[in-house]
Amino acid sequence: MQLSIMGLGGLLAHYEGVCGHPSSEEKGKIYLRAAELGINLFDTGYGDEVHIPNELKGTDTNYHFSLKVGAPKPDDLEDLVDKKLKLLCRDAIDILRVHYYAYKEDNQLANRIVDLKQAGKVRSLCMIRHTLADQKAYAKHGPEPDSDADLVIYNYVCRWQETGLEQSDKMGQGVLIMKALGGQWISWLDKTQTDWQKTTPDEIIGLSPRGEGISSELGLIYPIVAGPWHELSESEETGVPTSKALSWVLKNKAVSSVLVAVASVDELEETLAAK
Predict the structure, then answer these.
(1) How far is CA 158 from CA 114, 225, 238, 257, in A?
(2) Domain segments of the chain: what residues?
(3) Under 8 Å between Cβ of 69 and 151
(4) Calpha distance 189→206 (Å, rounded)
């Protein structure tokens, strides 16, 4: 599969949904505009796939669809895939995304995935490296040999996955990137204008729309959002466009595509202005 440099992430993820979701009409416009701009990878599994326009569905298109199933029960997996295939009017899911820890701990799940690939319902398997333990395993050992790709946290201020990315590149494994804009726990403006040399992890709670709701996740969140995002700006700029963050990630030759969630056509166009 030849993937576009940016894939359209789950549209529900706009500041974790606290700041409100785009209307159904706006979501449809985002999908269509993304396709016009050359995006050919669309992420599903968050619920917003019901708003994918019919123009992007079907088997006679050049679009690719990723499906996040997380850590499903093995006996439920095929039903989950079948429901998405029916919605998308397709024969196969291009990229099935499963949590790395779930795959490693459950042989039955791994076997079900093999069955789905052999049946032609799944084209490729991608390991989600979201938990800290799964990230450490990737940084130390590189990609899982049985998978086709990994979904990795990597951005301008959170770079410690580069050793894993190097190993993926050597092995010819695909790499999808998440959190390229630092995640959506706090706004892009706060990320780029906060003095991170003086800001503690606990102060992120005050910046996040979710407030105390992120307290249990601070160990994961802080390294992803905290750092000198302002360095991405140029002297004549008054702010930091999100396209600069995407451009920086794409300089790494191991990266196949970057999944970015947006909440409007304007956000989409700003981010995809990456050069």
Answers:
(1) 33, 8, 24, 17
(2) 6-186+243-271
(3) no
(4) 14
- Within 10 angstroms of residue 51's Cβ, the number of other Cβ atoms is 17
How far apart are alpha carbons 188 and 181 in whole angstroms? 7
DSSP code for 46: S
Helix (H) or strand (E) holding 34: helix 24-36
Q: Does the pLDDT of residue 14 top 60, yes or no? A: no
CA distance 255 to 135: 16
Name the pairing type of β-strands 257-260 and 122-129. Answer: unpaired
DSSP bridge pairs for 149: 126, 174
pLDDT of 183-233, one tens digit each? Answer: 888 888 899 999 999 999 999 999 998 889 899 999 999 999 999 999 998
Amino acid at 191: K
The per-residue DSSP string of 160-212 comes to TTHHHHHHHHHHT-EEEEE-TT--SSS-HHHHHHS-TTT--GGGHHHHSTTGG
What is 6-186+243-271's CATH superfamily?
NADP-dependent oxidoreductase domain (3.20.20.100)
Which residues, at least 6 apart from 214, have a Cβ–Cβ distance to it below 8 Å?
A: 185, 204, 205, 208, 221
Q: Distance of alpha carbon 208 from its chain centroid, rounded? A: 20
- What's the burial of 81, exposed, middle or buried (CB within 10 Å: 0-12/13-18/19+)? buried
Q: pTM here? A: 0.94
Token digits for 155? 């951005």
DSSP state letter for 15: G
